[in-house]
Design a protein that fits this description.
Helix content is 23%, strand content 34%. By secondary structure, it is of the alpha+beta class. Helix 1 packs across helix 3.
Length: 217
């Protein structure tokens, strides 16, 4: 029930009053949001940084279930629910969430056919690692690998940093970091990160010999 209430609150803020003008019968944005979250959960794959969900969702509905042209605000509301859920649950997304609603005669009235896909793409930063005035590493993925390897989500070109050094993720409104068995360790405000450590904004994080200040956007 809490999940449904969260959907309702988020959607009401963005698409207040739209549902009655867009959908007929039993379909409602909350039902679509619940379906999207379920499909995202079912799409989960275990990647190098942990659980990774699909980010492209095409919802196909019978035209008789739609009463008007689909407003962009409704699409944005559904995408926001998925973005928020991914951040709350610690899911990685490799690209921005994209939701589309498509009328299709071959879909039975009152039902939804969901097609999913994965498409890497640029993501906005939700945090930064800074050092002085000239070093600023953006954190873009909900789950990101930090290391010396150029393929790292946050790449730190220092020989004292291991190729795969640490994992950073956000979940339930908090950011966390854990060392991945690096040669020179990870510390948060001087505490070693042998187990996951809470990473508050303003914390000083050391990856081996390199120290940064962590800032949430």
């Amino acid at each position: 029930m809490k999940l449904v209430r969260d959907f309702e609150r988020r959607l009401e803020q963005l698409v207040e009053g739209m549902a009655g003008r867009v959908f007929r019968g039993k379909l409602h944005p909350v039902e679509l949001a619940a379906r999207l979250v379920r499909e995202a959960d079912l799409s989960m794959e275990q990647g190098p940084a942990g659980p990774t969900a699909a980010n492209i969702f095409n919802l196909r509905l019978n035209p008789r279930d739609l009463d008007a042209e689909i407003p962009p605000g409704l699409i944005r509301g559904l995408e926001d629910v998925l973005d928020s859920t991914a951040a709350d649950r610690g899911w990685r997304l490799d690209g921005p969430v994209r939701v589309s609603l498509e009328p299709k005669e071959d879909v039975s009235p009152g039902t939804v056919d969901c097609r999913i896909d994965r498409s890497p793409g640029p993501l906005p930063a939700w945090a930064f690692f800074t050092a002085g005035s000239d070093t600023r590493h953006p954190v873009r993925h909900n789950r990101c690998l930090i290391g010396r390897a150029e393929t790292s989500d946050v790449a730190i070109g220092n020989p004292g940093v291991s190729r795969t050094h640490a994992l950073l993720w956000r979940e339930s409104g908090d950011a966390w970091v854990v060392d991945l068995g690096s040669a020179n360790g990870t510390q948060v405000n001087g505490a070693p990160s042998h187990a996951p450590l809470l990473l508050p904004t303003g914390a000083v994080v050391s990856f081996g010999p390199v120290a940064f200040t962590f800032r949430l956007v």
